[in-house]
Amino acid sequence: MLADALGRPVRFIITAGQVGDVTAAPALVEGFACGAVLADKAYDSNAFRRRVTEIGAAAVIPSNRTRKILIPHDATTYKLRNRIERCFNRLKHFRRFATRYDRRTVHFTGFIHLAAVMIWLR
Questions:
Q1: Percent of the chain at pLDDT above 90?
Q2: Average pLDDT over residues 11-23
Q3: What is the pLDDT of residue 101?
Q4: Residue 89 phi, psi dihedral angles, 5° rounding
Q5: What backbone torsions phi and psi does residue 70 show, to the nearest 5 degrees?
Q6: For a surface tag, which of 14, 51, 86, 99 has the fewest beta carbons within 10 Å of its beta carbon?
Q7: Which residues, including other chains, have CB under 8 Å from residue 16's CB and lie 6 or more apart?
Q8: Which residues pair with 3 in a beta bridge?
Q9: Which of 10, 5, 1 is nearest to 117 (CA)?
Q10: Residue 112 to residues 17, 25, 94, 107: CA-CA distances in angstroms?
Q11: Is the CB of residue 26 less than 8 Å from the CB of residue 51?
């Protein structure tokens, strides 16, 4: 999921449960204008960092501990990453989202869009 600076959902990509989030991340930021992309250590890959640089944003991603050479990040800006966590928390207030009642992806995606609109209207 991609959220804006206020922690409101902007884009979603539904992936299979066993797929890592970093595989869908380049498609999420595609064509999105921003000054910085804040993400956790799971998104620390050279390809994603390159993609973020290509769109003209700064990658504020802490290095994974398996990196031989750690890449520094802005710790003050990284503290703002809690906004995406708050966005997920707001979505989890909808029981249908939190427990994934819908078996079909198209139905689940439709409900996510409905819940996102309700969050935007708050």
A1: 30
A2: 84
A3: 81
A4: -65, -40
A5: -75, 140
A6: 99
A7: none
A8: 9
A9: 10
A10: 16, 18, 10, 9
A11: yes
**pLDDT score recorded for residue 47:** 92
Residue ranges making up the domain that contains 7: 2-120
Task: Quote the number of domains for the chain.
Answer: 1
Residue 117 backbone phi and psi in degrees, to 5: -65, -40
Which pair of tokens denotes residue 75? Answer: 């710790």
What does DSSP assign to residue 100? T
Instruction: Record the tokens describing residue 21, joined without a space.
Output: 């989030």
Q: How far apart are CA 69 and CA 87, in angstroms?
A: 32
Residues 69-108 have pLDDT tens digits of 999 999 999 999 999 899 888 888 888 888 888 888 888 8
CA distance 70 to 67: 6
